[in-house]
Amino acid sequence: MQPDVKRAFVLGGTGAVGSAVLRELARRQVPAVFTYRRSEEAARVLAGELGHRAVRCDLADPTATAACLDAEDTPDVVIHTAAISGSHALVEIDGATWREMMTVNVESAHAVCRWIAQRGKPCDIVLVGGLDRTQSLPLPVHFAATQGALAALAMAAAHELGPRGVRINLVALGVLDAGLSQGLASRRRTDYMAFSALRRVGTPAEAARAIVWLALENTFIQGKVIPVTGGI
Questions:
Q1: Helix, strand, or coil here: 118?
Q2: What span, in angstroms and rounded, lies between the C-alpha atoms of 98 and 69?
């Protein structure tokens, strides 16, 4: 086990990236508590296979999210991989759709940061998103707005929490061969590979190695967006 990291808390552990993060943590012998929303069977399998503990938490419900966090001891590492996306055009995004996207993708991340700030203990927080602020991409507007909010959240929270021993950064992922990227149209995927420096999509395992490295080994990166995009 890492001598300076004892426990991790992973939000969205049954997703493609979240489950890869859990596997990487297990490989490094770091025990974790992870959340799931609906995928109870997948959570049970992951917990049994990897030795982590699963807790149900509906991140679309801020009250449930707060209760879930308050029930847990303060971890040494928090990794927020939970996210929802969509293929809506701007005119199709009504208030309810916008609010759900913001609640799951952004408000839950804010809740995590607030939770750690209230506990007053050093911690590494890694948020996981899909936009590194240098790209101009044809993304669904509500999803893109959440990604911009996450980057700004990490930047501002880093200044406030850094003096307390809390590091917070955002890993911006490129297109992967699983997870939310599966919703991309084939033409968009082809375009991505054409402009990628590696000329390919990534894998959740590759993403997880970068995320977990940042969570466990980083000591001086703070408030930054780290692109893990294959060079797009």
A1: helix
A2: 24
What residues contact residue 98 under an 8 Å CB cut-off, 6+ apart?
A: 142
Overall pTM surpassing 0.70 (yes/no)? yes
pLDDT tens for the chain, 232 residues: list them.
445 557 999 999 999 999 999 999 999 999 999 999 999 999 999 999 999 999 999 999 999 999 999 999 999 999 999 998 877 788 888 999 999 999 999 999 999 999 999 999 999 999 999 866 666 666 778 888 899 999 999 999 999 999 999 999 999 998 888 766 666 666 667 777 777 888 888 999 999 999 999 999 999 999 999 999 888 8
Domains of the chain (ranges plus CATH)? Answer: 8-228 (3.40.50.720)
